[in-house]
Amino acid sequence: MTVYLSRIAFNMLRTSSGRCLNVTISTETAYTNSNIFFSKNDLFSIVRRGNVRNYSSDAIHPTAALENSSIPLKKKTIHKKAALADLPQKEGHYLTMAYATANSYDLKGLKEALLQQKLYEPGTLQAQEIGDVVVANAVYRVGDEPREIIFFSEGAVVFWNCSELEASNVLDFIKKYEIESYPTEVVDREREVMSYFYQPNAKKCYLQESCFVMVPNKDNSLERYTFSQAMAQSARLGAWEARLEALAAAVSYHTRRMRRTGIAQVDKKEVVRKLGELFALRHTLNVESDLLDTPDFYWEQEELERLYSSTVAYFTIPRRTRVLNERLAHCVELLELLSSWAADRHHVRLEWMVIALILAEVCFELMHFYERSHTRERPRGFDRPTFTSELEENLFQDLSIVDT
Question: Boundaries of each DUF155 domain copy (predicted)?
């Protein structure tokens, strides 16, 4: 018996000592790993320090993702509109501005008006495949660098080496040839501003941060056109984003009212009108524009295609287009919900009108029934008529005898 009890006590002491040993080892291991991790990346060391615990040997081990946390994460590229004050004010740097002022231009009338004004002369591009574009070169030069304006039929204009005053005068001039003009505050707010300069040792044009690098002593007309089209696309996309913000603000009022009261008092015609504007904006974005794909002109121009793709990526046009489509889909869903709510209210109103007509008809039938029943009972209680002569009284009595 004593031997049996001694064996039980020995086993209990051995297991308890083993557990204490395991705890000590795991704790030291956890601190060792955490110290190694601290030396690699101090940013995540706070999270690791807070997660150190005295676990036993059967605890869950950290995954491989935590061991490889020193791998740098991919950051999203966010385009921030540059201001004139942010551009480098150096000698040899020239200004480039892009505006989106309308859905489209009457380029034929605009070209004739520019020729009549005699301040700009039409320019030419090397490629003949480019259409729906008007290039205007200033007749009078200010300095060695020429001034150039590129008008796109999609309603955008890009100024090269033009001052803000000259750009403002040209924008006022082309208002007569705009189709579905944008608000002035949207045009000014959503403009794109860049600068360009000539690199002496450059062999080809490229984009460097917020500057376009040009090749000196070379015709850079196609490269200017490529940069201009990318900037015009960004300005147009900004105008559409502003338009969607205005539509979303109009819808948000009804959503807040639905959240507070549980009732949406909307006009069906207004909802349908807003839906039409959203669908028109989506059609313009996805069908009429080239934002989802590279324009056909660059398919046979590899160098220009790379230049266009890099400029479009700089302005984050693909990501902004995707986000704009998602926001459009969300606003369309909200308006469709409001439209179904308005349709249900209209149906309920019609049902109540039908019920009211049925009640009115029932009331009229009750009135007619009452009149008919009253006219049937009236002859029984009919009073004896008064006669003017005895002869009439005798005739009335004879008729009564015959009826009986």
Answer: 149-325
